[in-house]
Amino acid sequence: MIHRFSVVPTAPPDAILGLTEAFKADTNPAKMNLSVGVYKDETGQTPILDVVKAAEKVILETETTKGYLSIDGMPDYRDQVRELVFGETVDANRVAVLQSPGGTGALRVAADFMVAQLPKARIWIPSPTWANHPAIFTAAGLPSDTYRYLGDDRTSLDLDGMLQALREQAAPGDAVLLHGCCHNPTGVDPSPADWQQIASVIAEKQLLPLIDFAYQGFGDGVEEDAAGLRTILNAVDEAMVCTSFSKNFGLYSERVGAVSLVAADQAARDASLSQLKRVIRCNYSNPPRHGAAIVATVLSDPELTAQWRQELEAMRVRITQLRQQFVSAMQQRGHDFGFLLKQKGMFSFSGLNPMQVDELKSKHGIYIVGSGRINVAGMIESKMDVFCDAVASVI
């Protein structure tokens, strides 16, 4: 008998999720997991927002079916996504919004669409970027290259290097991946003036922006975090946006996202929508209901929306305070991490090298990504001194 699967090699563990498995197996009582991008409260738990529970009560009382959604998802959810992300920047008739299983699903749908409809396109990815970005595009068969994002100090944006790469190396028709806010893994975002320059070069080179917008509300605020995206959209006629509600609604396991396409006119929007539906149909067919119903319920109710914004603001403020506490505690230990205060969102590049990261793991049970990326939102006030002592000991 032929055993075909006996020759299948074992894949290497995921660079980030694999750390979680190692963390779970670690018996160190003082262990900390600062690798995976989830928000944790002061007890170390990933909470369910009160507004999510309130929305679920409404859904429980009013839901009448568990039937399939349409290929592009819930109409009221799509309307709310369009309003939250785009505001009044783009005519609604030019925008197609399709519900997706998380931001990862949205990125894969966008990549598959580009491969099918823009066969000569290459996508330019910032270096560094989220570890899963290159894998998603490679799996879809979308050629990619990188542009410089950080300066030599690894703590600030190299705007000149970024723009030079796009001007001199990208070809008209290529796509460029941008982080809409709270850059993962660095926390380094362009300023409003930087966004203007980026938008000008994208328009000048006729590039297609693909904007990964996974952290709206975690940087400076819900509307403030959309400013860069909207600056880009004011400069171009076409774009794609991948949205996630994992972080800002705490709906990690519900897989709630959307892929949006902005076209030059309604006819192009409609044709592109039909092709995006084909991509989805042969992938997961139609999206899940529950998480999208939560988001739609909250954003369609003014009181629930206000409550959500308050809870989101509380998470954002707490992350900022954790940054400040870490910087202050490290300053007391004779180490300057002040550059972290300029960074935004859940993540920061700590400057720790792979050897130091490994020592934190092996000697202290502290897990961060090999690049030195720290999930600031995973820090816990009561363990800050323990964490800072460990970091100081490996520097």
Automatic annotation (TrEMBL):
Keyword Acyltransferase: no
UniProt keyword annotation of Transferase present: yes
GO MF terms held by the record: identical protein binding; L-aspartate:2-oxoglutarate aminotransferase activity; pyridoxal phosphate binding
Coiled-coil zones: 305-332
Name of one Pfam family that matches: Aminotran_1_2
Domain Aminotransferase class I/classII large residues, every copy: 31-391
InterPro entries per the UniProt record, alphabetical: Aminotransferase_I/II_large, Asp_trans, PyrdxlP-dep_Trfase, PyrdxlP-dep_Trfase_major, PyrdxlP-dep_Trfase_small
Entry EC no(s): 2.6.1.1
EC top class named in words: transferase
Keyword vocabulary terms for this entry: Aminotransferase, Coiled coil, Pyridoxal phosphate, Transferase
Entry superkingdom: Bacteria
Cofactor needs: pyridoxal 5'-phosphate
Family, per entry: Belongs to the class-I pyridoxal-phosphate-dependent aminotransferase family.
Subunit structure: Homodimer.
UniProt xrefs under NCBIfam families: PRK09257.1
Protein name according to UniProt: Aspartate aminotransferase
Organism: Stieleria bergensis
Gene: aspC_1
